[in-house]
Amino acid sequence: MKIKINFFAYFRELFIGREREFDLRDGATVQELLAILCDSPELRSEIFENNKLKPYLIIVKNGVSIYSLEHLSTGLEDGDIISVFPLMGGG
């Protein structure tokens, strides 16, 4: 199945581009996708801290936060769009 990932803010620089597409096995999860995406210790340290997502990281599946779904165990389906961006503030 094909999954698209959109990157925002500094994640665009980190992952070298605005988006990437991955071919994953049927039944793959967000955790599996992130494991493939973070293919170096440097990238992994930007996303994870003690095997948990860093608290400032927002991951959205088709417009819905994975935190309100099944977190890292959220299942993926063909055509899903995952967005990754830092928590933003402003005023």
CATH superfamily: Beta-grasp domain
**End-to-end CA span:** 40 Å
DSSP, total strands: 7
- Please tally the helical runs, counting DSSP H or I stretches of 4 or more residues: 3
From the spread of the alpha carbons, the general shape counts as globular
Strand order of the largest sheet: 2-1-7-5-6
Tell me about this structure.
By secondary structure, the chain is α+β, with helices and mostly antiparallel strands. 22% of the residues lie in helices and 31% in strands. The protein contains 3 helices and 7 strands. The radius of gyration is 12 Å and the shape is globular. The model has no long low-confidence stretch (mean pLDDT 93).
Summarize the helices and strands and which ones pair or pack:
Elements lengths: L1 E6 L2 H5 L4 E5 L6 H8 L3 H7 E2 L2 E2 L3 E5 L2 E2 L15 E6 L5
Parallel strand pairs: 1-7
Antiparallel strand pairs: 1-2, 3-4, 5-6, 5-7
